[in-house]
Design goal:
The structure holds two protein chains of two kinds. Chain A is an alpha+beta fold. Chain A is built from five helices and nine strands, in the order H-E-E-E-E-E-E-E-E-H-E-H-H-H. The chains are: A alpha+beta, B mainly alpha.
Chain lengths: 164, 317
């Protein structure tokens, strides 16, 4: 009898624990970098099937090592994205005063353009006119595509782990 | 019951000693822990409040934000890390001259960005970008967020593409572990995030911007003085070497490229020179450690095509 009671209590506890997770809906994450890519396979050489931008929200379907399978909408399943692109916080692109207060009180929000931002860089540059950013801007234009990377590896007789 | 009765046997003096010991054990934890920062901020904000510098709601906002901040450098978003990195990079370029060679820089970017994709931090806010510096110093530097610099002097220590890959992979390791951000003094991180927290209670004023910019400037100088003058800890250099070996293996390069480069460097480094020798552990000690990680590595085929493109891009360096 005692055993039955204990089992019942354990069963109820499991139900209570599981229910809120179900009721809260699907897990979502945000893109925390300027541009992110969704791939057909959990590999950097995986074919790019979709692109996402800063602040976009994705539905989490599955996690496998550093890779997360995501959907762009509630019922889609689009492909794999690297965990370094994702944050569990919601990103506010044009935060107002209320957002700042909310973000200060917890972990749920990240504010774009706050803190060390473009505005602070501009202020710093005004104070330090001798520091030249022209080469930094030029550097940022050196962008290598996945296609170029693959070609570079093949031409150099390199065999990456997991293949092409 | 048993426990209770045991307690009754304790002499009051022993009880006091146990209590004292408990307090002694707990105290250092409190002092060194994150709580302290919170406590300090609480005192600070209540003083500010009592002298009428800030309103109650602002004080509340500051206290709340510092609770979030007291954690660490990890609280910088990738976007903030990016802006820190841009200015660190600009300061580095201010000290060294960029090597204006299109072909060589294109090659370094093809190689570096391909390696970065295979790292544990393949994506940063605005990606990895590489630049050769026109300097005979033997050096390579990484700014937070993925701006990576390598001197011509360092490239001369690389006899093949695998060796160049090793240097770049080591720098990618520093970015991956956010070693640059960790050079920022904790007090600055706290003060930056307090300003951001206070910002919500009122319109972003000139004063806030000025104070945030001052903190920004100090943070940049913490990082650049570590990169250029003091160097990272031995532990951080070791972490970057381990990351380099992992990246090289994933892409298909021979991780012995790192050993090869260090051997050449060991011959070229002059004791007391103001570059890599000052900011890094000796090549010989690094080689010994790296060889333990590599083990008996059989992969990494040599390739004529790979060597030809290395010579074409950097042969005249």
């Amino acid at each position: 009898m005692i055993k039955l009671k204990t089992s019942l209590i354990i069963f109820l506890l499991i139900c209570l624990n599981a229910f809120p997770a179900f009721a809260a809906g699907q897990k979502m994450m945000s893109i925390q970098v300027k541009k992110g890519e969704i791939r057909s396979t959990p590999s950097f050489l995986g074919i790019i099937v979709a692109r996402v931008s800063y602040g976009d929200r994705v539905y989490v379907r599955e996690e496998k090592g550093p890779w997360v399978r995501v959907g762009l909408s509630g019922n889609s399943d689009d492909g794999w994205i690297h965990t370094s692109v994702l944050t569990s916080k919601k990103i506010v692109l044009n935060p107002g005063a209320a957002d700042v207060q909310t973000s200060a009180s917890g972990d749920e929000l990240a504010l774009a353009g706050k803190g060390f931002s473009k505005q602070v860089e501009n202020e710093f540059r005004e104070k330090n006119p001798n520091i030249n950013y022209a080469w930094i801007d030029r550097m940022e234009k050196f962008v290598v595509s996945q296609k170029q990377s693959k070609q570079f590896l093949k031409e150099g007789d390199l065999s990456p782990e997991g293949g092409f | 019951m048993t426990i209770g009765s045991k307690h009754q046997f304790l002499d009051p003096a022993v009880k006091l000693a146990v209590l004292g010991l408990g307090i002694m054990l707990a105290l250092p934890v409190f002092i060194s822990g994150c709580k302290t920062m919170e406590a300090v901020t609480n005192i600070g904000t209540s003083i500010g409040q009592s002298v009428g510098m800030i309103t109650e709601s602002q004080a509340e906002s500051i206290s709340k934000s510092s609770k979030a901040v007291a954690r660490s450098f990890e609280d910088f978003t990738p976007e903030q890390e990016y802006y820190i990195g841009r200015t660190v990079g600009a300061v580095v370029i201010n000290k060294y001259k960029p090597y204006n060679n299109k072909k060589a820089n294109a090659y370094i970017n093809l190689l570096g960005q391909t390696l970065a994709k295979a790292s544990d931090m393949p994506e940063t806010f605005n990606g990895y970008h590489f630049l050769i510096l026109d300097s005979d110093e033997i050096n390579a530097l990484a700014a937070p967020g993925g701006l990576i610099f390598i001197t011509r002097g360092m490239l001369r220590c690389c006899r093949n593409e695998d060796a160049v890959a090793a240097v770049l992979a080591h720098e990618i390791g520093h970015v991956q572990f956010k070693h640059g951000l960790q050079a920022i003094k904790k007090s600055r991180i706290t003060s930056a995030l307090i300003t951001i927290g206070a910002e919500g209670a009122k319109t972003f004023g000139e004063e806030d911007l000025a104070s945030l910019t001052a903190t920004f400037e100090d943070s940049i100088s913490d990082i650049t003085s570590t990169l250029v003058n003091n160097g990272y800890s031995r532990k951080f250099e070791r972490q970057a070497d381990i990351a380099a070996v992992t990246i090289l293996k994933r892409v298909g390069y021979d991780p012995n490229g790192l050993v090869d480069m260090l051997k050449v460097m060991d011959k070229k480094l002059k004791p007391g020179s103001p570059d890599f020798a000052k900011t890094h552990p000796s090549p010989a000690s690094r080689i010994a450690d790296i060889q333990k990680d590599i083990g008996k590595y059989a992969g990494g085929k040599r390739s004529k095509a790979r060597h030809a493109r290395f010579l074409a891009a950097l042969g005249n360096n």
